[in-house]
Amino acid sequence: MLPIKDIDEKYMALALELAEKGRGMVEPNPMVGAVIVKNDKIVGKGYHKNYGGAHAETHAIDEGGRNCKDSTLYVTVEPCAHHGKTPPCVAAIIEAGITRVVTTFLDPNPITSGKGIKQLIAAGIEVRMGVMEDQARKLNAPFFKLIQKGMPYVIIKWAMSIDGKIATVTGDSKWITSEESRRYVHKIRSQVDGVMVGINTVLKDDPLLTCRFDGGRNPKRIIVDSKASLPLTSALIRTVQQSEIIVGVSKNAAKKNVEILRQAGCTVIETNGDYDHVDLRELFLALGSRKLTNILVEGGSKIITAILEERLADKIIAFIAPVIIGGKGGASPVLGKGVDNVCDALKINEVRHYRFSDDVMMEGVLNYR
Q: Does this model's pTM top 0.85?
């Protein structure tokens, strides 16, 4: 017989796997998984499948039925105690006759934080907190950032040659990485709320920024464009009905240009940056107020550099292809002043590596300390 600590971690690990299935569908809510166990047998399980839909606990309780009586519930976030788009989960847990609840951390949302646990304890239910808390916090890092800082979780992505170039001296960049890598990028797009590029990338590549992944959803398309110069002939404007286009501009952009973009169907966010500059922090706060939880930044170098210099990014995803481009003027993903000493370089933690065809993908979380 396993110790209770190991049993709890065993079933919480399964609940975390279930929670992951909701990625890209539940935001701005957290990803949540739930497993109900009785006599060391799983009698019900579920996860939060879509924003506005039933919560993980409800799915698990519905599956468990009468077997939920005198059982243990493993759930990856504190059960909610408030009426939102769905009834409170705490009431359903109590009514189902569950006698023990194991969870990870208190919901950071002040609407419910701590209230769910208090109501469970008041109903005589045993509660254990902190099981696999680190893993659960990492899974829902975007939710935490949105709640605590009012800003989306920012992922920077680039594809480069093995010598660190994202384009040739002529500006050509199609295609540095393999088709398999590009398919994976579309999968990422399907899991985020928005894809962001700078206006120079639009003018050079005329991208769609949509998701071409089977079953995936289109993210909102965000353009950093201080002068509100996005061409009406661009592929973005021509497909404005496919997914929302948000243009971040300077407050000093020509009012005529701003009005033209609005008339074309774009959402325009004016920031306090000067004529050649968008205040990125202000833009991200505005996106957070619209409940965008994850943003994928796809370039180019200017916008990537600015976001890193202002310490607004959270994660890096870099695809490295086994090709050598060379060229003194070939573009690099990050420009700017840089650091004088390697010891002062920006560090990346929690590094993972993946293989797509002959490409290597590296991802990790930025450490600004």
A: yes
